[in-house]
Structure formats: structure tokens, C-alpha cells
Amino acid sequence: MDRAPGLSVRVKLTLSYAGFVMLAGVLLLAAVWVSLLEYVPDDWDRRMLYENPNRQLLLRTFAPAAAAVMAFLLLFGLLGGWFLAGRVLAPLSRITDATRVATNGSLSHRIRLPGRKDEFRELADAFDTMLARLEAHVAEQQRFAANASHELRTPLAISKSLIDVARADPNPDTGKLMDRLHAVNTRAIDLTEALLLLSRAEQRSFTREPVDLSLLAEEATETLLPLAEKHGVTIETSGDVAPTNGSQALLLQLTMNLLHNAIVHNLPERGTVRVTTGVRPETVVLTVENTGEELTPQLISTLTEPFRRGTERIHTDHAGVGLGLAIVKTIAHAHDGTLTLTPRPAGGIRIDVELPATAPRAEDR
């Protein structure tokens, strides 16, 4: 934004300091003058003007001295104000320089303003925190873009290879080719839809409405029950009414993703998934816990990154696209909530989604 040139803050503070010093000097001299007038008579006799104390003699004596004092105060206020303003605004200059560096694209620079806590140091610390988060976000977005490009390129490359082989074969198996192309195309569509859903959640472009997490858990369980039966997994649901505000579609997607991951990444046979909802003093909690392989805390901490999977890459019709928990984390944060992943000692993982609670609706009571 273009602005007309104006006085710097240092000049404004200098003039303010000088003005206050001059005002204080005027008030002080006025107080002295009034006090002296109480003890000096108003005797206007030119013959006795320089012999007896009177107000006219006092004025002629006091005025030059007062003028000299005011001149000194003006000079002292300007010089002292300029020096003090420079000392006070020195941290602001460092913050401004860091802002210019960040504007030019360098997010690794930090102010690290030394000294005890005050307004400028709070601003510098907040700016450093913002730069750190922004740098991490940009790095995450760069990794996400690279991973997304790689994941999208894979089905396109497979499709191209299948078509090239079919063109070179004089008698191609059309049915088999179509089935493989259909599977590859379906995966590309699923990945694109997941990316769009992730973008929508990050932008928070949704309407908030009352939502009961317990009802979403029941709906997700009914939808994915055939998949659980196919994998030999038992789903157990329990809990209380858990009212919150948010997008019902996004929160249902969150619940579906958690339950889907819990089913797919489970024991080969006789696996278990427990879905519970609860109410805390100010929040509601959705918990999805499943049996499975033992996971380390180091691996757990990476599961919410895009295109990361808890075990080796799975090539099944229900493997997903590697964005399940990334979408869950984004949806939870978009609803001002938190996502906590905890490895179970016996194997598997426990995932808690905590969201702000609201008063339950009348029909839910």
C-alpha cells in the first residue's frame, strides 16, 4: 500500500518529550511566579522603582531568567527526547528488519530479542513463533505437493503403460485391460477427492451446525460393517451423547476414516475395534481403538503426515490413498479440536479426537 511520507515515530516521540518538558517548565515557572507575587507589593512608583521590592522590579528580573530556562528546557527536551526515543525504538527496528527479511522469502530468520519481558519483546517472541509455524507450514506444504504429485503420477503412468502394452499387442485381452484401467482410474479419483476434501477442511469453508458424535459413530459403524466382516474384525460401540458444533459431513468423514483405518490396519483374524464417545467438562471425545501390530511412538508421530502409512504400503482395494489420518487431523483442527495418537501396549493404536462441547439438543435429551 502506497502512503504519503510523514514524520517518523522517533521524531514524533522527540517532539512529544520536548513538548511535555516545556509544559512542565511553564507550569513550574508559573507556580513560582504566583508564589512570589504573594509576598511582593504592587507599588507603582517610578521614583522608588529600583529601591523597594515591587512586582514591576520582580518582573524585569524574573522574565529574562525564565526565558533562559525555557530555552534550555527546549534544547534539553529535543536532545534528550531524540536519545530516549532511539533507545526505546531500537527493538522495533530489529522487528522491522526481520519483517523485511521474511517478506523477501526467508522464513528461517529469527529476531531473538534479548532482555526482560515487555511489550516489544512480547511482539518479537510472537513474531518468532509465527515465523516458526509459517516455516513449518510451508515445508509441510512443499512435502505435501511433492508427495501428491508422486501419488497422482503413479496411476497415470500405470494407465499409460497398460495402454502402450495393449496397442503393441495385436490381440489384447480387452476385458482384463478394462478391469485394470478401471481400478487405476478409481484410485486416481479417490486420491483427487481426498485432496479436495483436505483443501476444503483447511480453508474451513463449511457451515457449522449441531452434531452428535455418537450418532456419527453409529452411522460409520453401520456403513463399514461389511468391510469389518470381510476382514474378520469385530466392532464394539458405546458411549454417551456427545454434542458439538461443526460440519456433519466433515465430521462423518473423520469418523469414517478413523474406523476404516482401524479395520484395515488390524489383526488378520479376530481383530477388534472399539468406538466410544464421551463428555468432559468443556469438550466431547471420540475414541477409536483397535488391535494390531505393535507400533513405536516414533512411528505414531508420523502417521498424520500425508501419504504415510503405519505398515508397509498396502495394495488392496481398501488400502486408501495415504491421506486418512491427515484428513482427520485437518478436520479436527478446523473444528478447533485436537487429535491424539497413543500406541497400545498389546499392539494397535488408540486415537482420541477432542472437540469443543455444546449444550445437547432437546431431542437428544
Order of helices and strands: HHHHEHEEHEEHHEE
The overall pLDDT, averaged over residues, is 80
> Structural class of the secondary elements?
alpha+beta
Q: Kindly state the percentage of residues in helix.
A: 55-70%
Measured distance between first and last alpha carbons:
54 Å
Number of helices: 8
Descriptive report:
With 365 residues, this protein is an alpha+beta fold. Helix content is 57%, strand content 13%. The protein contains 8 helices and 7 strands, in the order H-H-H-H-E-H-E-E-H-E-E-H-H-E-E. The strands form 2 sheets. Strands 2-4-5-7-6 form a 5-stranded mixed β-sheet. A hairpin with a 3-residue loop joins strand 4 and strand 5 (283-290). The two termini are 54 Å apart.
List the helices and strands and how they pair.
Layout lengths: L8 H29 L17 H49 L15 H50 L5 H30 L5 E4 H18 L2 E7 L3 E4 L1 H17 L6 E9 L3 E8 L6 H4 L23 H11 L3 E6 L5 E8 L9
Parallel strand pairs: 2-4
Antiparallel strand pairs: 1-3, 4-5, 5-7, 6-7
Features:
365 residues; 8 helices; alpha+beta; single chain; two-stranded antiparallel ribbon; five-stranded mixed sheet
Summarize the structure.
By secondary structure, the protein is of the alpha+beta class. It has helices at 9-37, 55-103, 119-168, 174-203, 213-230, 248-264, 297-300, 324-334; strands at 209-212, 233-239, 243-246, 271-279, 283-290, 338-343, 349-356. α4 runs parallel beside α8 (324-334) and α6 runs antiparallel to α8.
